[in-house]
Design brief:
The protein is α/β, with parallel strands linked by helices. It is built from 10 helices and 7 strands.
């Protein structure tokens, strides 16, 4: 019984720390573009910020469980309020009311999200949870004034066609991701990404009012750089190698690994730009690469393993079962200790900031 309790406590602590590390990495990126976001709202938002507008509505797509989403939302509200007061007499203005829609997949932990949000006495907005995939429309037409999403658009709505089919040239063999090492696999992932990006933008075009803004922050690859040359690609390939080691030990099977593929695709910068330009409902006000604060810091194995455990545990558990998680990431830790990632030899992903304006 004592061993069982110890194992449960260890598991809870590990998961808690993993989520903290993932939030830290994302928050660092969000903070790095905080002033840019503020200036873009002040300069590009042309909506009438008065009582004629009614309630000002903000949507955060792919909100997860906080706290980053609350930080983003408050920053947007602060910028809108500053814009409203700019050059005007504060006493003559009717204060805006704010409504925030927190969107994520139906299996997102919305209970944790709302339990951990700021108390009502400190909150300047009415909040609502919106379960559903952002690859489709999740809110009524013309209801959102500013949309936001960060580190989400590389996630695909489905596993690309044929990558788990042994008889297809697009079979991903023993890899668990698209690391750009097999051309047919990359093509299949790109087709799915193109389809999903189209659906994402079309849905936002329905929901965002004319003149409204959509802010997108995320990661892609520099043109000509494969994912397998980045530390992120190397780490996920290492996770795949450890799964294969577990199959040899009888803890899972090679057949099961062959049917497992992470539904994520990191496009090259020019690919991302091309897909956005295809949508005629938005103008691209800003699209640029920005420096991530952690970009030049060699990250510890503990940080990397905790972060990727938080990112990938759910989909690994769904396919292999919960029992593999601790063993898998213990093996990853040992392998990285023996074969550390050489950050100096790794290519860097591109952190991008995009501001779109609804026509």
């Amino acid at each position: 019984m004592i061993n069982t309790v110890t194992t449960i406590i260890r598991h809870i602590k590990t998961c808690f720390l993993a989520n903290i590390y993932m939030c830290m990495e994302q928050k660092a990126a969000i903070n790095s573009v905080g002033e840019k976001t503020r200036q873009c709202i002040i300069e590009k938002l042309d909506l009438p910020l008065n009582s004629d507008l009614g309630t000002f509505r903000i949507a955060d797509y792919g909100c997860s469980i906080g706290p980053n989403t609350f930080h983003v939302v408050q920053s947007i509200i602060d910028a809108v309020k500053f814009k409203q007061l700019e050059g005007k007499n504060e006493t003559s203005l009717m204060p805006l009311e704010f409504q925030v829609f927190f969107n994520d997949q139906p299996n997102n932990d919305f209970n944790t999200l709302f339990i951990t949000q700021p108390p009502s006495s400190e909150r300047e907005y009415f909040s609502a949870g919106v379960p559903g995939s952002f690859h489709g429309q999740v809110l009524p037409r013309n209801t959102v004034h500013i949309g936001h999403t960060s580190y989400t658009t590389h996630w695909l709505s489905d596993v690309p066609e044929n990558v788990d089919d042994k008889n297809s040239p697009a079979w991903n063999k023993n890899y668990i991701q698209c690391n750009n090492s097999i051309e047919e696999v990359t093509k299949s992932y790109k087709v799915q990404f193109t389809k999903d990006m189209k659906l994402f933008l079309e849905a936002r075009a329905e929901e965002i009012v004319p003149g409204g803004l959509m802010i997108v922050l995320g990661q892609c690859l520099p043109d000509g750089v494969p994912l397998l040359k980045t530390y992120q690609g190397i780490l996920v390939d290492t996770i795949g190698d450890c799964l294969m080691d577990m199959a040899k030990s009888g803890l899972t099977s090679e057949e099961k690994i062959g049917l497992f593929t992470i539904p994520a695709y990191f496009p090259q910068f020019s690919e991302l730009e091309t897909e956005i330009e295809k949508n005629r409902s938005f103008t691209i006000e800003t699209m640029e690469s920005v420096r991530h604060p952690l970009e030049d810091i060699p990250l510890s194995n503990h940080f990397l393993i905790s972060m990727f455990r938080a990112i990938l545990s759910t989909i690994i558990k769904e396919h292999f079962g919960e029992d593999v998680i601790d063993e898998l990431f213990d093996r990853v830790a040992k392998k990285l200790a023996k074969y550390p990632i050489d950050f100096k030899e790794c290519e860097k992903n591109v952190t991008y900031f995009i501001l779109l304006k609804r026509k």
